[in-house]
Amino acid sequence: MKLDEQVITRAIIERFSKKLLDNLSLDVAVVGGGPAGLVAAYYLARGGCKVALFERKLSIGGGMWGGGMMFNEIVVQEEGKRILDVFKIGCRKFKTGYYTADSVETVSTLCSCAAKAGVTIFNLMSVEDVMVRDNRVTGVVINWTAVEMSSLHVDPLCVKAKFVIDATGHPIEVIKVIERKVDAELLTPSGKVEGEKSMWADVAERTTLENTREAFPGVYVAGMSANATFGNFRMGPIFGGMLLSGEKAAKLIMQRLKKKGK
Ligand code: 48H
User: Fold this and answer.
1) For site-directed labelling of 10, which of 67, 156, 251, 252 has its Cα 20 to 30 A away?
2) Is 83 exposed, middle or buried (0-12, 13-18, 19+ CB in 10 A)?
3) Is the dihedral of CA 223, 228, 233, 237 positive or negative?
4) What pLDDT sits at residue 248?
5) CA-to-CA distance for 210 and 192, rounded, in angstroms?
6) 64: CA distance to ligand 1 center in Å?
7) Confidence (pLDDT) at 258
8) Which pTM value belongs to this model?
């Protein structure tokens, strides 16, 4: 059979356009494809939610690829290992309570499992704003990362969502937009972003989970965003808290949507 470039081109345009059109109204928009966002999206999709994940970069996986300081191994504690086991990611005991996993295997498996569970992943797309009605976020405003990078004056498009997860990591981009643009308080003690503190792995891993909750009506924070929003420590290259936070965000949202997790 002879291959026709016109067919190849049409296939990509038609299939991508359909994918985008099918995702203009979501149960959950996950912003950020790091470990927390991927795990949250996976559990939401498994629970029957319509979920799309928007990732600014070409590759999904956020800060996990590089392990610690580009040594591509990650550490998880006992509780975090439970999530690695769910995804059948190989991990090895280092000493009591500490396990290591290959960061490339971990990221690629989380990504693959999320896609296979039914998450639609849009890479190269950034969330630059939100829609707010009656003091509740009702969706996200998206644009191509290339537009953002080149500072082109191109207007964005919009995706409606019942819930949004800010899984953008250290910069907490969705919450920061709300803080800057919406004339209302966040659900934090001060009503503002409390801010990330310096390194303390033991406390940070625990508080990441505690801080995984609704930070503005309709918006949950997961992963590093949770501690940055509610004001707690960073934890360095231990990733159990990120994985568990993704799982918790999904559970909380599914309760609100009255969906049963699998
Ligand atoms: C679309 C966006 C936008 C946007 C950002 O940084 P991440 O890996 O986030 P987490 O919370 O899943 O994991 C944090 C972990 O990687 C980490 O940094 C740790 C444990 N640090 C500890 C320490 O002490 O330093 O992923 C966030 C993703 C990235 O891929 C961004 O490109 C993406 O979100 N992103 N995508 N629209 N506006 N902003």
Assistant:
1) 156
2) buried
3) positive
4) 98
5) 18
6) 9
7) 87
8) 0.98
The pLDDT value given to residue 260? 72
Q: Which CATH number fits domain 25-65+108-260: 3.40.50.10490, 3.30.200.210, 3.40.1360.10, 3.50.50.60?
A: 3.50.50.60
Quote the CA–CA distance of 5 and 37 in Å, as a whole number: 36
Most informative mutation of 242, 245, 248 for ligand 1 (most atoms within 8 A of CB): 242
- Ligand 1 mean position, distance from CA 6 (Å): 38
DSSP letter at 174 equals: H
What is the distance in A from the centroid of ligand 1 to the CA of 50?
A: 22
- Nearest-CA neighbor of 229 among 260, 259, 185, 261? 185
Ligand 1 contacts (CB < 6 A) are 31-37, 54-57, 62-64, 126-127, 167-171, 173, 199, 223-225, 234-236, 239, 242
- Best residue among 39, 43, 53, 56 to mutate for probing ligand 1, ranked by most atoms within 8 Å of CB: 56
